[in-house]
Amino acid sequence: MLSAADAAKAAVHHVTELTGRDAESVIGAERHDDGWRVTVEIVEIHRIPDSADILAVYQCDVDGDGDLVSYRRLRRYTRGQVGREN
């Protein structure tokens, strides 16, 4: 079984490869079934100033070997948006 850190690295790799966009951070990781569910924040659109960037949160499931099982975008928001979790 992968460690949480290795699962997060695998998830970031898969999401950046599939979306062609930059990962901002890993914002969550939890054991799920026979692998991990990792939540990754991605910069979808770079803007000037940076506070206007459009970010997205992706949920990725990776198996015990680090292979991608599924991924989906949960939400999008501007970087400057604070305090809104849905």
From TrEMBL:
UniProt protein name: Gas vesicle protein
A Pfam family assignment: GvpO
GO terms, biological process: gas vesicle organization
